[in-house]
Amino acid sequence: MRIASLLPSATEIVCALGLEDSLVAVTHECDYPESVKGKPVVTRSVLPGNGGSADIDRHIRELVHQGSGIYRLDADRLAALQPDLILTQELCEVCAVSYPVVERAARRNPEATQLVSLEPERLTDLFDHVRLVGRLTGRDARAEEVVAGLEHRLAAVRDRIAGRPIRRVVTLEWVDPPFNCGHWTPGLTEQAGGRDPLGSAGRPAHAIRWQDAIDARPEVMVISACGFSLERSITEFRAAQAPLERLLGEIWVVDGNAFFSRPGPRLVDSVEIMAGILHPEAVQPPPPSKARRLR
Questions:
Q1: pLDDT, position 124
Q2: pLDDT tens, 64-76?
Q3: What fold characterizes domain 144-293?
Q4: Which among 290, 295, 252 is positioned nearest to 272, based on CA atoms?
Q5: Who's near 80: CB < 8 A, 6+ residues apart?
Q6: Strand ranges (DSSP E) for 165-277?
Q7: Quick one: CA dihedral 69, 188, 232, 203, positive or negative?
Q8: Domain boundaries, the chain
Q9: 3-state secondary structure of 245
Q10: Do 3-119 and 144-293 agree at the fold level?
Q11: What CATH number is given for 3-119 in this structure?
């Protein structure tokens, strides 16, 4: 089977199932495992590469208002690669190439191409998607092994934090303007022994005011900027002019791009990272490469 993945998270699922050799196309953002960087790339971003958070937010709003996406698909190259299966999504209009564009490109293949949209809204959806891709590719048994391993790690976190107080957390998916966290992220916080009063579980994140974060009185604030590395997130947070003197509690920055933003197998890593932040006496604190405390 020839697989085209138009999502970094789908690429990670495919590789977890032992199907990396079947990947014939990936996105410009697919970077894990490292070896997929050598695969043919069929997407690009139209956003300025050096823009700050506020600039990126403004560009995205303008493009969405115009009915245009922030990604472009090389339909000619995708068609030439002749995938049997294309994995994409319809959940977020700014997270991948728009579904209608992919649908039109899939029709160009003279052979039957199966187009599958992965729509994760909660952590449990990840397990369903691993099983779905396993079923589509004849890797059912391997998919069950992957899911069992992920569930075992989650159970280990639950055991370690059992009986400990639930901590009040505010997680931000963007900092200028600030956005709350949505979809699967509030559930990750719950699995790690926290509760986010501003989170939108199973629904998209949305812009909030810094005053909302202050009024929530978090014990811990976690910055998980969508699509940004740890170092970039730290830079953007420091430039966002957040009212630090009125934000109480700990402030942490995590590598949102590698972990929290991608609904693939590494969401379980995200739970472990968050548990290490919230309950370091019970769970190994995350290394500086994954999370860093600013205060």
A1: 95
A2: 656 566 788 999 9
A3: Rossmann fold (3.40.50)
A4: 290
A5: none
A6: 167-172, 174-175, 178-179, 182-183, 194-195, 200-201, 220-223, 250-254
A7: positive
A8: 3-119, 144-293
A9: helix
A10: yes
A11: 3.40.50.1980
